[in-house]
Structures are given as C-alpha cells and as structure tokens.
Specification:
Length: 487
C-alpha cells in the first residue's frame, strides 16, 4: 500500500514538469526525492497530507495507513469534508451521522446475478424457437462425406493455383538473366554495374507476352475476379497491348549505372527519357560514403531534370553519436539533428524553412526545450537556484513580441515537499505540498454503530429503477403520428 501511495504522489509532483518540458526524470530526480521523503516518514506516528494552497484558501487530502485500513479524508481550510475508508472487507463512506458500506463480495455477486439474468433471458428466447427434427445417422454421414469432398476439392484447387503462380513467376524471372541485362566491370578494386536497357526491354517484352498468353493463369485470374471482384484476364491483356510499345520505348531510354569502391564510396546514376525529345529527362543520383566497421554513413540523393536545378535533395548522415537528415526543394527545406549517447537521445533540433522563411524551429536537451513557430514561441529551462530550489521556467512569446512566464519551484521545507507555481504579473502563488502532519482524529468507520450496508437487493432495485427511467425516456422521445387531414 505504501508503494501505491508513493506512485500517486510521484505522479502529482512530476506531472507538470513532464508535460511542460523535455526534462528527464534522471536529470531532476524528483521521484528519488519523493521516495526518500516517504521512506523517512513514520506512518505510525504521522499522517500524510496532500495540500493545495492558493491565496487564503487551502484544500488537502489526509492519508492514513493503519494496518489493513486506508483512510482518505478530504478537508477544506482544515475542516473535514468527507471520509472514505478501505479495508479487506469493503469500502466505507461517511455521510452525515451514518456510514454506508459496500462489500467487495456484494459487487461480485451483483455482477454474477446480471450475467445469470442475461443467460435466463437467452434460454427463454431459445424455448420459443421451434425445434427441428434431429438429423439421422445416414444424413450426418452423407453431409460429412460431402464436406470432405468439398474440402478435398478446395485443397486441390489451392495447390493447383499455387503451382500455376509459382510456374508463372519462375518463368517471368527467368527472362531477366543478369549476364544478359547487366554489364559488370572491375577496375582497381572498384565495381561498376550498368543496365543494358535494350536487353532489359526485350526481356520485359518476352516475359509479359508469355504471361499474357498463359491459359492456366487466365483461368485463375478470371475465377478470382468472379468470386472476389476485380479485372478479368482479358482486361489485363487489353491494358498491356495498349501500353506495350510506349512502356518498352521508355525502358530503352533508361541509363542506370552504379559504382562501388573499396574505400566505401558508392555512387549511382539513373535517368529515363530520350535525348533530344520534347519530354524532359528525369535523373536520380546518389553519392554515399559508408564505413560499416565504425558505423558511419553519409548519403546524398538528388532528383532533378537533366541540366536543371534539383527538384529534391535528400541528405542523411549517421554515426554512433549523432544523426542528421535534411530534405530540400529549392529554397525550402526541413532538417533534423539528433544527439545520441549510450543509445539514448540526449538532444535534438528540428528546423523547417518554407520559401526562404523559417516557419518552425524546435530544439531540446536534457534540461531545456525551445520551440518557435509562426504564431509564437515557447521555451523551458531547468536549473538549481542559489537557495537550492529546483526551478522549471516556462516562457511563452506571441508573434507580436508579448511574453508571459511561469515558474515552478520544487524544494523541501521541513516536513513538506513543495511544488510552487507562480505566473508573471500575478501576486498569487499556488502550492502543492506533500506533508508529514501529526495524527489527526479519524474515526474507524468499520466500528460505527450506524452502518447502512449496500446489499445486492438494493443494487438490483436501483438498477431496475434506472432501467425503468430509460424506458420511459425512450417512449417519450418516440415521434407521434401526425393526425390525418381531410379535404
């Protein structure tokens, strides 16, 4: 139970910090401070109080762990406003001069009764369904045989379809033999691989023509289209005939070369389009330096029309301690930089520029966060003050230069852990405190003389009342038929 209380208090104390900045728990160690505070608290002589103080008003929740009993007493300006007690038997709630108790086994029984009631309703509904005569042994045997035949036929068809697809795929791939469509040259430790576009176009033509005249594949495609929808084999044949010459002509214009050197330098060039034609030639180039042994890589990929400025440039660099990625198009670009230490992100920076104007910038580390956008900016920082307080400062700035700041201080004062929040321009501060307080007078509700137990019958009566109210509401909401008018 003490561990549960620790988790609840820790969540309250660190929630604002976790949501307002990129500070790690390791850097501020609030959870360790709270655990130490709780470990040093003697719950036999002290109660815990979760307090909220704003101006002259205060509210708190007194927590007492007394053997098997957990007491929760909310107070307003030190005046009790309720009392909840939990023990292995059930839950006790104080109300005026009486105590209401709900046993855990009462909840279990109530839920079981609901399930049983639903089962009884289903049983009654089943009774109204006329029973059909049970099948004879011969009918059952015949049905099993028919199902076995159908299953065998389906399995045989699946095997035949798999064989058809495998055969078609192997035949298709067999047209593209590397020694026919690739030109490989080795020179002083470097390897250059070039695509023979004419041979590649011929191989594709042979492969597709054979595919479009495969009768077994045609039956498979048509059967699938009839059962699941989609194009028939004739539709695919018509599309290939329509686009065949244009596709092959485009492939013949491909110029593709890749070169890999011993020092880890890799370059590639790909272009498609005919020289001297009205259509522009589209090019893609890559330049990379890769060191697999030490985990370093730098890669630049450019997409452009021939002899024109790049349409897109993608750059990436990675090493064991950093990662960078940048995508550019003209005078617009986005860039991400990440710092890594011991496989953990320790900081990052993200920038976005549109048409030469910086639209967004975000940067964070273990003890700060900064973000700027077209509508304003926000920044946070964490530091230890001269007086020993752990201070989180949040500053928000609008696009017209107006700014507001908020400060959250964490510190210990005697028997209290304090989280204090203050806003620029306001003299009022809000404090959240976890305090050790002297034991207060708290009644043992389980020993009260006036205990009103919530029984299963009471719960069922309340449920029945709710359901009746729902039925009445639904009937009231039903539209009434408009009276017929006579001419």
């Amino acid at each position: 139970m003490k561990k549960l209380i620790s988790c609840l208090l820790a969540a309250m104390m660190i929630f604002i910090v976790a949501s307002a900045s990129a500070v790690t728990f390791e850097s501020i160690q609030l959870d360790n401070v709270l655990n130490k505070f709780l470990d040093e608290t003697d719950l036999k002589t002290k109660d815990l109080s979760l307090q909220v103080l704003a101006g002259d008003s205060s509210a708190d929740l007194v927590i007492r762990l007394d053997e098997d009993n957990l007491h929760l007493v909310p107070r307003e300006n030190n005046v009790p406003a309720g009392h909840i007690q939990l023990n292995p038997t059930g839950i006790y709630v104080a109300s005026d001069d009486s105590v209401t108790m709900l046993r855990y086994d009462t909840i279990t029984t109530f839920m079981q009764n609901i399930v049983k009631g639903l089962e009884d309703i289903l049983d009654e509904a089943v009774k109204d369904i006329p029973e059909e005569p049970a099948p004879t042994e011969a009918e059952i045997k015949k049905a099993v045989e028919e199902l076995s035949i159908l299953a065998a036929e389906a399995e045989a068809q699946e095997q035949a379809d798999a064989a058809t697809l495998t055969s078609a795929a192997l035949s298709f791939a067999g047209k593209f033999k590397p020694e026919y469509i690739l030109d490989v040259k080795e020179d002083n430790g470097s390897v250059t691989i070039s695509l023979r576009s004419e041979a590649y176009a011929s191989a594709l033509a042979d492969a597709m023509d054979e595919l479009m005249t495969n009768p077994s594949l045609a039956k498979l495609v048509d059967r699938t289209a009839a059962s699941e929808g989609g194009k028939s084999f004739a539709d695919y044949q018509a599309e290939w005939l329509k686009t065949r010459e244009a596709t092959l002509e485009a492939i013949r214009t491909i110029d593709s070369t890749e070169k890999l050197e011993e020092n880890g330098h890799y370059t590639s060039h790909f272009q498609i389009g005919e020289e001297g034609s009205a259509e522009k030639i589209l090019c893609m180039d890559s330049d990379a330096w890769i060191d697999a042994e030490y985990g370093y890589a730098e890669i630049t990929t450019t997409l452009s029309f021939q002899n024109e400025e790049p349409l897109l440039v993608y750059e990436t660099a990675v090493n064991p301690s950093a990662y960078r990625e940048k995508l550019s198009s003209g005078n617009s670009w986005t860039e991400t930089q990440v710092n890594v230490d011991s496989n953990r992100v320790r900081g990052a920076k993200v920038t976005a520029v549109i048409d030469g104007v910086e639209e967004m910038k975000m940067e964070f580390g273990e003890d700060y966060l900064y973000m700027k956008g077209p509508k304003g900016g926000i920044s946070t920082s964490v530091r230890e003050t001269w007086t020993g307080k752990l201070r989180v400062e949040l500053v928000v700035e609008t696009a017209n230069g107006e700014s507001k700041s908020m400060i959250i201080d964490f510190y210990q004062d005697g028997d209290s852990l304090i989280q204090e929040l203050s806003v620029e321009g306001s003299d009022t501060t809000v404090q959240f405190k976890v305090s050790r307080i002297d034991k207060t007078e708290i009644e043992d509700l389980s020993a009260s003389e006036k205990i009103n137990e919530v029984t299963v019958e009471k719960l069922e009566a309340e449920l029945e009342k709710i359901l009746k109210d729902v039925v009445v509401t639904v009937k009231t909401a039903e539209p009434t038929a408009e009276p017929e008018t006579t001419n």
